[in-house]
Amino acid sequence: MSSPSCEMDKDWDTSVQFLPASDNKKLEKKKGPGKVGAVIGVVIFLAVIALMTGLLVWHFHFRKDVRVKRMYSGSIRIINQVFEDAYENSSSSEFKALANQVTSQLKVIYSKSPQLAKYYVGSTVQAFSEGSVIAYYLSEFRVPVGQEAAVDNAMSSMDKLVDKARRSFHTPGNALVFEDVMSSGRAKTQTTDISLDTRLLSTSFSDSFKFSEHARTDHIGQIQSPGFPDSPYPSNTFLQWELRADPNHVIKLEFDTMNLEANCKNDFVKIYDSLVAIERRIMEELCGYYSPSSPLTFMSSGNVMLVTMATNDKKNYPGFRAKVSQVPRGSKALTCNGHLTGERGTFSSPNFPNYYPPQTRCEWSITVDPGKVVKVTFRKFLLSKSGLENSKDCWKDYVEVNGKKVCGEQPDRTVTETSKTNTMSVVFFSDASYVGRGFDAEFEAIDSNDPCPDQFQCRNQRCIKKELQCDGWNDCGEMSDELNCKCSSKDISCKNGLCKPMFWKCDGVDDCGDGTDEENCGCQAGQMKCKNNKCVSEKNQCDGRDDCGDGSDELNCGRVASGVTCTDLTYRCKNNKCISKVNPECDGTRDCEDGSDEENCDCGRSMFKTSRIVGGQDADEGEFPWQVSLHVKNSGHVCGASIISPRWLVTAAHCVQDDGRTRSYPTPTTTNTPTTMNDIALMELDGPVTYSDHIRPVCLPAAQHDFPAGNTVWITGWGATREGGFAAPVLQKAQVRIINDSVCNNLMGGQITSRMLCAGVLSGGIDACQGDSGGPLSNPSGNRMFLAGVVSWGDGCARRNKPGIYTRVTKFRGWINEKTGV
Ligand code: 4AZ
Q: What is the pTM of this model?
């Protein structure tokens, strides 16, 4: 192999150029140096020297002074002071006197570290709380660029500095005695930035406010964002709420509304298990929308809590409101240790299904009859997701069963453990930051020789009904129930060894994964299949005659035939002539003579390039700009809808019917009694919306628009993320496929009409759910999205063999046009 330098030599050889003789003369001419040339040379030389000197002076003299502001927050326990009520008021003389003492002692502490002493600017005490007295402070440093890590390190060993200062003090009699120092220094395992949230440092807030609330036993306090509920919260503002409880109590913070901008980079609320914003003590960061029907309650570990809110540009969101109360330490909601016995039982993390408090350890010991073993199944497992990068280590919050740690969020009933003896211990641990909703578990005594009586045992120890083995569905979650199967006569034997239900054969979707179920579907060699399932000779295709009887053999024939006979499948131009192209509208090609297929095409596009729903993921901001959240006063989000024009929305009829429970619905234009039949409604807005990057209409399909089975479509919404579950705070998106009408009708017990459209993933797990109703089923076509359906109903959510049912928009295209002009 040749080395790079050899190759370069070779290149050099080939690139040498010899000047022609005429140029030689020119060179000789230039060679004659004039005086002017010499002067210019000297001037340039001096200029270069001066420039370099300047650079060196700047580098050594000034550059070292380029410093960055670094803020650290911390708390310190003062054990030789007794808390006084006046310490809660930062303008009291008692507060000021103690704060002065703390800051001057902090200065001494920082002077014990060379790195800190050099760059220290000053400290301010933010608050005090009981216990004996805890001081919460902010310290500012001006650190030369490049020295940040050294200062972070020094800060992370604050406790050692406090010791050093204590030992070397000529301690005056009245000096404060510090213990439990906690600065926002970097813990060894911590990966987040240790100084304050950089969003706070980079934003210039035009206003900042601080509020205090002391919870009392016989009183429920309330905090809320400014203006709530009558006006949107202010822009470019930083707010803090200091919450305190009596000694030996913890704080319960219960949000009844949380409705902020969806992007946490812009507006956010943070909850801390401290009185200062120490990132190591953050419990949760909230933004976006939380349904009032899903509980959002937090508990502190001590008797203080801090809520902060930061907003940037004006965006008009309502904000939040929360109740503040105190709960005695050791009360029933918080105790979690226990000895459990019996044949079966349940237990859950403290405060479930609400957020568990930080810094909690619980241990349950379960004992069943001798000779039996214990099996624990976690029905819900929702531990904090933070720190999951190293999920194997579970170094933050975890559950430990028989010495095996599990952490993060896990699907329902997928975490199960069986003991080897008749006892089992379960430990729950939450560390100092980030909390989750916790877990809910059941245990039972089982016979170790027959762990799944009359059932099939999966490799992951789950027990499933015997009938579910080899039925084409992945019931175990790891496919062990679908391996080594002999398919029954009711099944398709896929070449790859899987068995799939026979009704999936020839439905236009590759269910086996290897195409077996879509082979030999109907027509003989040399024939084509019409849309109405008739077989006609391939020679009849595009011969100008309707051989199928539904015109499907004359569609998409290369050149667009204009003025063809109009059928249910042809597109009708404005001039009433029909064309043979399938879905010609807004595809960028003018197909109608009058160009009407390309009119009104400013729709169905998001302005951003981007790469509740059950089984979905967060949508990007502006990805589905036609998605609307319909709110009912005091109940928040109830349904989805889609923008079709500046004045009109399409939603589901059942979203706007007044059933007596939910009041104040706007009067809609519905087609009929709003049941699952004709489940579509139009809503006219008071005034037109202004389109923006985040607000745009979806394309309405022509009445003849074809959405064939197998097409991939998007479902979006803020509905429940599992059947019977909670609404999603961030718009969810998921991809599903359109399902063949007759397959769907069989699956849904004959309830499907031609005005409905089915979409889903038949193996279950992805679907629209409660709260998604009225929202769009968006079908991508070219670079636009068309509104194929309106979320309508289903048999539960994401159940296998139970697709979601949508109102088929094409069937209502004429009605929509008649009512709205769109
Ligand atoms: C509902 O209740 C609902 N799985 C919407 C869609 C589906 C089920 C229920 C489809 O709004």
A: 0.61
654 counts as catalytic: yes
* Whether the Cβ atoms of residue 730 and residue 264 lie closer than 8 Å to each other: no
**Catalytic site residue 489?**
no
The closest of 238, 242, 241 to 208, measured between CA atoms, is: 238
pLDDT digits (tens, 9 = 90+) for 327-367: 998 888 788 889 999 999 999 999 998 999 999 999 999 99
In whole angstroms, give the CA distance from residue 288 to residue 608. Answer: 19
**Ligand 1: does its nearest atom lie under 6 Å from the Cβ of 431?**
no
Please choose, from the candidates 793, 698, 693, 684, the residue with its C-alpha nearest in 3D space to the C-alpha of residue 749. Answer: 793
Residue 369: active-site member? no
Distance of alpha carbon 612 from the chain centroid: 11
Angle between helix 158-168 and helix 93-111 axes, rounded to 10 deg:
90
**From the CB of 791, is ligand 1 less than 6 Å away?**
yes
Judge whether 552 and 531 are in contact, CB under 8 Å. yes
Q: Which residue segments constitute the domains of the chain, with CATH numbers given?
A: 67-183 (3.30.70.960), 202-328 (2.60.120.290), 338-451 (2.60.120.290), 617-820 (2.40.10.10)
Closest-lying ligand 1 atom to the alpha carbon of residue 773: 11
pLDDT value, residue 523: 79
> Does residue 615's CB lie within 6 angstroms of at least one atom of ligand 1?
no
Q: Which of 481, 654, 772, 781 is catalytic?
A: 654
Q: Does 774 sit in the ligand 1 pocket, CB within 6 Å? A: no
Strand, helix or coil for residue 808: strand
